[in-house]
Amino acid sequence: MAEERYGIDLLVVGAGVVGAAVAHYAARAGLRVTVVEQAGVASGSTGAGEGNLLVSDKTPGPELDLALLSMRLWTELAQTVPGFEYEAKGGLVVTGDDTGLAALRRLAGAQRAAGVTVTEVADPTDCEPHIRTGLAGGVLYPQDAQLMPALAAARLLDHPFIRLHTGVTVTGPITSRRGRVVGVTTTEGHYSCGNVAICAGAASGRLAAAFGTRLPITPRRGVVLVTAPVPPMIRHKVYTADYVGDVAGDTAALASSPVVEGTPSGPVLIGATRESVGWDRAIPVTALRTLASGAVALFPALAAVPVIRAYAGFRPFSPDHLPVIGPDPELVGLWHATGHEGAGVGLAAATGSLLAQAVTGRTPSLDLTPFRPHRFQEAT
Amino acid sequence: MNEPIRFLCDGEPVDAEPGQTIAAALTAADVWTLRRTRGTGRPRGVFCGMGVCFDCLVTLNGRPDVRSCVERVVAGDEVVTTGVRDV
Amino acid sequence: MYDLVVIGAGPAGMAAAEVVADHGGTVAVVDAGDQPGGQFHRHRPGEVHGRRLEALYAVAARVDMRYGHRVWTVERAGDRFAVRCVVGQREPASAVVSGRAVLLATGAHDRVVPFPGADLPGVMTAGGAQALLKGGGVVPSGRIVVAGTGVFLLPVAAGLAAAGGRVRGVYEANRPGRRLSSMAGEWGRIAEAGGYASRLVRHRVGFHRGQAVVAAHGRDRLTAVTVARLTANWRVVPGSRRRIECDVLAVGYGFTPQLELAEALGCRLEPGASGDPVVAVSATQRTSVPGVYAAGEVTGVGGASSAELEGRLAGHAVMGVRPPGRLLTGRAQARRFAYRLETAFPVRDGWRSWLTDDTVVCRCESVTWSGVRGAASAGAVDARTVKLLSRAGMGYCQGRVCGYAVNRLVGGDPMSVPVRRPIAQPLPLGLLAEEGEP
Ligand SMILES: Cc1cc2nc3c(=O)[nH]c(=O)nc-3n(C[C@H](O)[C@H](O)[C@H](O)COP(=O)(O)OP(=O)(O)OC[C@H]3O[C@@H](n4cnc5c(N)ncnc54)[C@H](O)[C@@H]3O)c2cc1C
């Protein structure tokens, strides 16, 4: 073990999709990377993620810029490290009434100005034959894509410069007298390393505290329904326009307008709810019912399809809805990449690429200022 | 013994004892393959016999994914074993 | 609202229902099937013979039997429980049965150990063969082999032979030998086992200790199995493989309790005799969640008579009546016996060496041994992460069948076998969309 730990340029805490992407790009930049994971690959938020890569649900601003960059990078990764069910299937946002349509058009117009490809669809049944009739209209977003998050994390970690240590929990930093992080303590002993990146998902707030940094990242629960495998009947990621409101919402109460989509293996995924209830895994029937009725309202033919599975996961929630990417305000050599909430799969590729640039001393290709970890300290 | 009841399996008439499950009646009639797997197309038959494993799924009167080991036959039922929904 | 909603109309559930009814309580018994008795007393419709079965029907006549109800979740709402069900398969409908207390008496299903060819039609669980015989009166035509481990193999083989089945042999992977017969005096059921043994002798069915079916062969259905002698850890003794032509294989490696409802309610689980999880209960069958009781196979205690004892105790506890002392002593005895029986027929890890790369481990998603291994080398550490990386356990049965094997294959702690299934039975989305408030 001791000799394995020799020469770690970057130690990544967490083998979720974000940690995997950070490790991947750092390894590609030539760093020797060790990923330390308390459980198994994708055992956290990533294992619950549906794998939507969305630009459609983002309003113009730093998150959309990050998403656009990430979309490009995921397309590339699908070529260089294939095997994670990447599908450039496009997203379809629909709305039932004229007020909704007006709002959707406004959003789409702003998105187009920010570089998003948008196409208005007068009759959604033209692109989704099984969608309910009588909708007011919709917008098609060809850039929206899908992948299988756990497989993506595993594929990104499959690199000769990356070592993966599962079953090891990081407990705190080892620092030099000059205030630089030089290693970490874990349940399996010490690791020495040049840099540490905390990519611990919804647990990042807790772990950052052990490193002496306040990072207000908390879990936000999401519930997903999975149906029995069915023949392909849903072509895009389909959701109603109110979803955009939920994502930006702050309420602890249940909010949901599900994204409905088919998967290459057959099941239809319907998700997800958004609730801030700590780490409670018990799924209330109301959450299941809300998802089901949302899906059936969009695709009446789903009514007869059996649901075989439901699960809950926890998103790394950040109070200003922006991820945290960049250097720690105090400890030199400590980096953060977390707080992506419900978009961490989509944003992982760009996050990994930008953080690797920063760690290796290059200028990140996108300005990281809006994502800086110390913004929370500045606010208080 | 009660009168046998008749149902169709893939269009062929099969006789069952009243109260038998679809799986029991088909086993008695020496029908073993109840479905094929998606993807590899391997044959599957009755396995757990108590509604747990979902291997014995058939299409019953047009409704897919019915567990034949727990559903009792009704006269005139139309069972389709080859109802693999290729996904 | 009922004083008690019993889930599972087997010996445990019916006994509890009887006691509650005797003491003036109201009871509903919910079961997916359409007769009382569960797996043990499974019978052909209309053929109610014997004292035990008649007694079960007498109880059924006094309580509300909700047949054809598959429970998909139990929800706690204040001081009561809403048992949510899907009713029927032909035209599924939904129903909610509410009670002040619930009894989980959901029993168990065969524990499945994979081996090459086990997915061929003609290979079925011992419980499955038993269900076809008892419930459908069906003896598969052709030659039958019975294999696996545990006393349950005996009634299955004896039953098939007595009903005219051509049973070619019973292959018991363990070597129970003397240890088992020394238990015989202790318990009536072993006398029963003795009866089965003599029946097997009468039908000239060989009982082979320390041997197992390690592969099944056939193209579209089973035509032969490979039988081998096993080492103490269940690896194949070199040179001991031989092929036996047969048409049906009934195979069972003990039982796995159905724990998803207990898990959903938050009941504490604990390691049973085999190390696998069971519901933790008090001496009067209370679980760690107030108002929730468990009895029978879910608590790790095998056998109809002990299940019945546990059910009676639960019934007394629900009604707040002190149980007769003999129930408590009987329960203690039954537990000791169950423990010894379970530990006399363990599953040894050597079965893992029977697998080949293309052996199907997860039947629903057709995930092979090499698929599971690939997930493990990509960083999966337990059944849940294997599922995410290989789809094993993601299909229709939700890992009920492969969960044990997958967990063992990746060296998971026995307690980490997957039991979380918030949707315990598939239900149409349209029904879920219309679920009412509890
Ligand atoms: C129901 C649901 C649906 C979602 N759908 C989508 C979607 O469609 N599209 C999308 O983009 N996003 C989606 N998300 C969000 C997405 O899953 C997350 O944003 C993303 O997975 C976060 O990845 P991560 O790597 O930061 O966190 P995680 O995946 O949680 O990874 C963190 C890892 O760190 C490990 N860890 C924590 N503490 C320690 C420690 N001290 N030592 C060692 N290891 C530690 C954890 O075990 C974990 O594996 C969804 C989330 C949920 C819950």
From TrEMBL, chain A:
Chain ranges of the FAD dependent oxidoreductase domain: 9-357
State the source organism's domain of life.
Bacteria
Give GO MF terms, alphabetically. Answer: oxidoreductase activity
Query: Would you name any one GO CC term?
Result: cytoplasm
The record, for Pfam families, names:
DAO
Arranged from A to Z, the UniProt key words for this protein are: Oxidoreductase
- List the PANTHER family: FAD-DEPENDENT OXIDOREDUCTASE DOMAIN-CONTAINING PROTEIN 1, SARCOSINE DEHYDROGENASE-RELATED
Protein name per its UniProtKB record? Glycine/D-amino acid oxidase-like deaminating enzyme
Question: Which species?
Answer: Stackebrandtia albiflava
- Give the classification, highest ranks: Bacteria, Bacillati, Actinomycetota, Actinomycetes, Glycomycetales
From TrEMBL, chain B:
InterPro entries named among the record's database cross-references: 2Fe-2S-bd_N, 2Fe-2S_ferredoxin-like_sf
Cite the entry's keywords alphabetically.
Oxidoreductase
Q: What GO terms are given for molecular function? A: iron-sulfur cluster binding; oxidoreductase activity
Q: Which domain of life is it from?
A: Bacteria
Keyword presence, Oxidoreductase: yes
Has the keyword Oxidoreductase been applied to this entry?
Answer: yes
| The name this protein goes by in its record | 2Fe-2S iron-sulfur cluster protein
What organism is listed for this UniProt entry? Stackebrandtia albiflava
UniProtKB/TrEMBL annotation, chain C:
What Pfam families does the database record attribute to this sequence? Fer2_BFD, Pyr_redox_2
Name listed for the protein in its UniProt record: Pyruvate/2-oxoglutarate dehydrogenase complex dihydrolipoamide dehydrogenase (E3) component
Taxonomic lineage from the root: Bacteria, Bacillati, Actinomycetota, Actinomycetes, Glycomycetales
Gene3D superfamilies, per database record: BFD-like [2Fe-2S]-binding domain, FAD/NAD(P)-binding domain
Limits of the FAD/NAD(P)-binding domain: 2-302
Entry-linked InterPro entries: BFD-like_2Fe2S-bd_dom, BFD-like_2Fe2S-bd_dom_sf, FAD/NAD-bd_sf, FAD/NAD-binding_dom, Metab_Enz_Cyan_OpOx_G3PDH, Opine_Oxase_asu/HCN_bsu
> Has UniProt tagged this entry with the keyword RNA-binding?
no
Q: Which domain of life is it from?
A: Bacteria
Which PANTHER family does this chain map to?
ANAEROBIC GLYCEROL-3-PHOSPHATE DEHYDROGENASE SUBUNIT B
| Protein species of origin | Stackebrandtia albiflava
Keywords, alphabetical: Oxidoreductase, Pyruvate
Which ranges carry the BFD-like [2Fe-2S]-binding domain?
A: 360-410
Gene Ontology molecular functions: oxidoreductase activity
